[in-house]
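Summary of Year 1 activities. Much of the first year was spent building the evaluation harness for sequence design. The harness presents a backbone, in tokenized form, and records the residue chosen at every position. We chose the following record to illustrate the format because it has been used consistently in internal testing since the harness was completed.
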């Protein structure tokens, strides 16, 4: 495994105030594997003693998994380029070239925040940065009202600021479906209610067209003809891209821009290259939480193992633990109540 930083680098880079939205709880013994676990025999709630880990706490859990299962990881080894090779792929990294038959890209999305497509986007602070979480006085604008937007808005309301969230798709209103990829998580809904109860949160159904500096203030023009004046740089909580970095050219794109995958999460134009992580999309299914994309770890491992002529029977233990989905038609089931 090649890692450009340290194990769990993304989580080490999370703003210190940010915590998981998905709760951890050790139900493993009864077949309900901790939602944030990456291996069926582990539980972040058990090893960390918390239910909503911070970034550094989760990185600690990941380090313990790597240590326990003796996963070989090369730290400080950034992959800078990947090309096709007669044997599979040639990977360029800080420690020299590596040739491999199969490759799994698990580079995550956090390193590819999507800037808002507006004039003056350079005047905004992306929600992933520590600056966006620093205490702010007076009026604050958050562009984007899904999980990250509600999270950071809740944080600033708790600190006493008056926060306006602007989002044309009004994710705070989504009432249909039980999939958290399309509806705010319970944690975010609870924070939203608490923030609204202070009277210091305003939700606006509109699209921000542009941001300008006006003396000591920042002014956002909305497509409903109104303006929002605030006392600090607007915060952009406008999502993340697929983060494919050096393998971007080895994936076809769907019409919505996400990578096209076959039923084994493999590139449709570069067989042997698999995608793992939150960028996986199959039809309308999004795998953007750990408990979703972990369902595919054992499947990808089995496909690679079988091609190499290995016995992959032990991977069935993942199915028994509810951590292996190879039939995607069973995902997306709605809850009755
Ligand atoms: C703000 C935010 C909050 C989230 N909250 C939750 C949550 O509460 N619950 C949940 O289940 N999911 C959550 N997610 C989803 C999140 O994507 C996953 O939790 C998780 O980070 C994805 O794991 P990953 O291993 O695929 O990617 P990452 O954790 O991002 O890991 C990717 C790793 O690849 C390394 N890397 C990247 N490029 C290179 C390269 N070129 N060479 C070598 N190494 C490289 C990085 O350094 C990093 O360590 C959240 C996502 C975001 C952005």
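For this record, the design step produced the sequence shown next.
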């Amino acid at each position: 495994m090649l890692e450009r930083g340290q194990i769990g680098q993304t989580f080490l880079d999370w703003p210190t105030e940010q915590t998981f939205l998905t709760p951890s709880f050790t139900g493993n013994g009864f077949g309900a594997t901790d939602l944030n676990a990456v291996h069926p025999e582990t539980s972040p709630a058990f090893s960390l003693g918390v239910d909503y880990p911070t970034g550094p706490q989760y990185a600690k859990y990941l380090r313990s998994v790597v240590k326990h299962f003796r996963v070989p990881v090369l730290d400080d080894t950034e992959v800078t380029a990947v090309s096709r090779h007669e044997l599979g792929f040639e990977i360029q990294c800080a420690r020299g070239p590596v040739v491999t038959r199969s490759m799994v890209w698990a580079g995550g999305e956090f390193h590819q925040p999507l800037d808002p497509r507006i004039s003056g986007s350079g005047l905004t602070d992306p929600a992933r940065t520590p600056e966006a979480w620093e205490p702010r006085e007076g009026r604050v604008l958050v562009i984007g009202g899904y999980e990250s937007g509600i999270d950071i808005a809740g944080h600033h309301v708790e600190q006493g600021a008056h926060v306006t969230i602007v989002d044309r798709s009004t994710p705070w209103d989504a009432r249909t479906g039980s999939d958290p990829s399309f509806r705010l998580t319970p944690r975010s809904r609870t924070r939203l209610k608490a923030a609204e109860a202070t009277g210091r949160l305003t939700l606006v159904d509109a699209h921000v067209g542009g941001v300008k500096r006006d003396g000591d203030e920042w002014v956002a023009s909305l497509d409903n003809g109104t303006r929002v004046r605030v006392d600090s740089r607007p915060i952009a909580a406008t999502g993340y891209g697929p983060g494919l970095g050096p393998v971007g050219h080895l994936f076809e794109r769907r019409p919505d821009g996400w990578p096209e995958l076959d039923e084994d999460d493999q590139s449709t134009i570069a067989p042997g290259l698999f995608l793992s992580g939150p960028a996986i999309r199959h039809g309308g299914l999004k795998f953007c939480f750990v408990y979703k994309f972990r369902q595919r770890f054992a499947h990808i491992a089995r496909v690679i193992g079988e091609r190499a002529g290995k016995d992959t029977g032990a991977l069935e233990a993942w199915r028994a633990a509810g951590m292996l989905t190879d039939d995607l038609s069973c995902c997306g089931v709605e809850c009755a109540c």
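The mean pLDDT is 95. Quantitative recovery figures across the full test set are reported in Table 2.
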